[in-house]
Write a structure and sequence with these properties.
- The chain is mostly helical.
- The radius of gyration is 23 Å and the shape is globular.
- It starts with 13 loop residues before the first helix and ends with a helix.
Length: 459
């Protein structure tokens, strides 16, 4: 049978998908990265700052749970995306996120908001966000870098002005109505997710062959085969991936501390209440710029040497966090925020290319999913720890010093990965005589791209 290599259209309806993905990225991470504003509104809404000395710690859990759920759910989202497709998964996630934000407007209980905002909105964000990355590979290959750049840049049109909007409008309409306005962003995303149409249709022969193979096995064998298919742990057999994943998980322990505490910090330290939103705008704008620039720079760096870009980002990020308490003026904090956003953009964008280098194209999706799952626990725990330090010491200095240590340690761990990789290559060349550890893999007609299951292929 003649097999034709699948060629993405490199445009056409794909640009509509790019717009939908940009809206998804901008609305989801715009809300999460603006939690510093919501954090203050939550405390004002509770009105218990003087009665409860642990209010900082308790309130921080709302945003930490939401961000942590994005990463915690990633391995599960990968399974859903492969099983029921990008379109259904993304629409379902946007619906859950919409319900979570809307329900958050009808309660003043912090414990209830742990569930509505932290769990529902966070989980829905994960299910809506991850398919937006996978679907771009259905429409672009040669222009995939350009498409990702447009998504990153376009998302900034929402995420950058959102803190200013929340600061100006939130104070006028109140926290409850603010949650309702934010839920409208996710309501729109429900319909935009319908544009995630899979491109590659499986051949009838491949479907029948799959059914015949499963039909010849026992129920126990079928269950085990399906479990191994969707819970594939082969990526952990690679030593370089294990080191990389551990380094990333360590580095993000204090990742959310600046986003959640900077606004409150400048209000207490510099009595700045009118321009504090500028900090989050600077973080968002420079993060978007960093994502655009790092993609182009990463393409120019061969192989796993890309990881040194991530090492530099983490090391600088840690030092910048420690420099925040040393600032003697509001302008100094703005300068630090500009560089913090740039580091954020660099290390996030370069993760996917590094995953491809470590495990190859067909395992990269699951490698990223497992990595984000490992990041969930430290990322969720970091902000409450910073809140506890603030409650204990009575200032934010210890929190920012704490936030700066894990990125430096993580960067040092990551710097070992290319060295280990080179040693493994040399050993493999001696054993097998091969020059390449990973071979290229082409997608042909009859095979399914990730996120394109048989249930959606005929649509």
């Amino acid at each position: 049978m003649l097999l034709l290599v699948f060629q993405p259209p490199e445009g056409g309806f794909g640009w509509v998908v790019v717009f939908a993905a940009a809206w998804c990225n901008g609305s989801i991470f715009g809300i999460h990265n603006s939690f510093g504003i919501l954090y203050m509104m939550l405390q004002s809404d509770l009105g218990e700052g003087e009665k409860d000395p642990a209010l900082e710690f308790k309130t921080a859990w709302v945003g930490s749970l939401a961000m942590g759920m994005i990463f915690f759910c990633s391995p599960i989202v990968s399974i859903f995306t492969d099983r029921i497709g990008c379109r259904t998964t993304a629409a379902m996630g946007a619906t859950i996120a919409f319900i979570g934000l809307l329900c958050s407007s009808f309660t003043k209980s912090l414990e209830v908001r742990y569930f509505t905002y932290g769990i529902l909105f966070g989980c829905g964000s994960s299910f809506a966000f991850q398919p937006s990355l996978v679907i771009l590979g259905h429409y672009f290959k040669r222009r995939l870098g350009l498409a990702n750049g447009i998504v990153a840049g376009g998302s900034c049109l929402i995420s950058v002005p959102l803190p200013f909007f929340l600061k100006m409008v939130g104070g006028a309409i109140g926290l409850a109505h603010t949650f309702q306005v934010l839920s409208a962003l996710m309501f729109i995303q429900i319909f935009l997710a319908m544009t995630y149409r899979p491109m590659l249709t499986p051949s009838c022969d491949s479907q029948h062959d799959g059914h015949d193979k499963l039909g010849s096995r026992s129920v126990r064998q079928q269950c085990w085969a399906q479990t191994r298919k969707y819970f594939n742990l082969r990526v952990f057999r690679r030593k370089t991936y294990r080191i990389w994943a551990f380094g990333i998980a360590t580095a993000v322990l204090g990742y959310l501390v600046p986003y959640m505490n900077l606004v409150k910090y400048v209000e207490k330290r510099f009595q700045e209440t009118k321009k504090d939103w500028i900090l989050l705008v600077c973080l968002g704008a420079m993060s978007g710029l960093g994502r655009l620039v790092s993609g182009r720079i990463g393409d120019c760096i061969p192989g796993l040497k890309k990881i040194y870009l991530q090492v530099a980002s983490f090391m600088l990020l840690g030092l910048l966090c420690m420099m925040i308490p040393q600032c003697r003026g509001f302008e100094g904090v703005i300068v630090i925020c500009l560089f913090l956003g740039l580091c954020d953009g660099f290390f996030t964008t370069i993760m996917a290319p590094i995953a491809f280098e470590l495990v190859g194209p067909m395992q990269a999706s699951q490698a990223i999913g497992y990595l984000m799952g490992l990041m969930a626990v430290p990322m969720t725990a970091g902000t409450p720890i910073a809140g506890y330090l603030n409650d204990y010491f009575g200032n934010y200095d210890a929190a920012f010093y704490f936030a700066g240590v894990p990125p430096i340690i993580g960067g040092l761990v990551l710097s070992v990965v290319p060295l280990v990789h080179q040693r493994m290559l040399k050993k493999q060349r001696l054993d097998s005589g091969k020059d390449k550890m990973l071979g290229s893999e082409a997608v042909v007609n009859g095979e399914l791209l990730p996120g394109c299951p048989a249930s959606e292929a005929h649509m």
